[in-house]
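Lab notebook page, bench 4
Experiment: in silico fold of construct C2
Operator: M.H.
Input chain length: 344 residues
Purpose: comparison with the prior construct
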Amino acid sequence: MSGVSTSTHRASRAGRRPLAIAGPPAILPPVSEPILDIRGLSKTYKGGLTALEHIDLTIRRGEIFALLGPNGAGKTTLIGAVCGLVRPSGGTIHAFGQDLSTRWRSLRRRIGLVPQELALDMFDTVSRTVNYSRGMFGCPPDPQRIESVLRSLSLWDKRDAKLRELSGGMKRRVLIAKALSHDPDLLFLDEPSAGVDVELRRDMWQQIGELRARGTTIILTTHYIEEAEEMADRVGVINKGRILLVDETRAIMGQLGRTEARFTLETPLAALPAALQSFPLALEDGGGLLVYRGGDGSGKGKREVADLTRALVAADIDFIALETAQSSLEEIFVGLVKNREKAA
């Protein structure tokens, strides 16, 4: 939980940890028309490994959708199935209202992918690599568009450099440039922020914001859960090939978010007084710490903490410090995965 510290007479504050990125794009109301509709999607590899198990997922046109899950959860396999890199064992995928299995060549032209792995010809130049990617999707040459993409990712000065001469972060920029070169309507970002510097993340999210403003739908997987919380319209949680939850980001925070407040008492209590029995409280640290755990992420917890503070003052129970924290999407995600694993 992210913390904020206060005191009855001596207040101090510690803000929530800052994001590693700067200036995420503003969240706009998504259009309800689905751009991707997945039904009963399954993938079992030789040897019996099930990577996806009856996945149902609908992506709205124009939204930013974050797919969260631990390593091996099936995120990359799901993306690969949509992008034609993985042959599903069952189920259907409809993109742009058409069956992807029968119209793959024409539909793939409208999909962009930034993969996790650096799959590049290290002896080619940046400019040729990005231009070739655009041509591979059947798009006519457009030097101005390529220049715009390269400049937006701080690659223009490196356009004639060979890829083997670039740093890891610059190579990641080239992957993003390739994915954007043919102006996709649906863009997949598979762990795009993993192992990259702050500057690249800032440039990348700025480019995503511009794409979003033009109506591009963006699906990202990430371990930087703060990004999903800040940017995504909706979040899906996947684990062991199954979708555990899909909902609006704010709704998830509202339903599963919790507030925790820790009052350090001046004098330890042997038991909770009657005036505090209506609050979800626990005495810890030998009665010297009064802990509130409640709320639902909608602001209820903060209101109850305020009521509790007044109740303590009315009951002449002095405290010397108060620390409050609101559960993050990361904590909600970890809790969901653990609870489902226990239930399995």
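Observations: Residues 198-213 form the longest helix (16 residues). Residues 2-31 have pLDDT under 50 and may be disordered.
Next step: discuss at group meeting.
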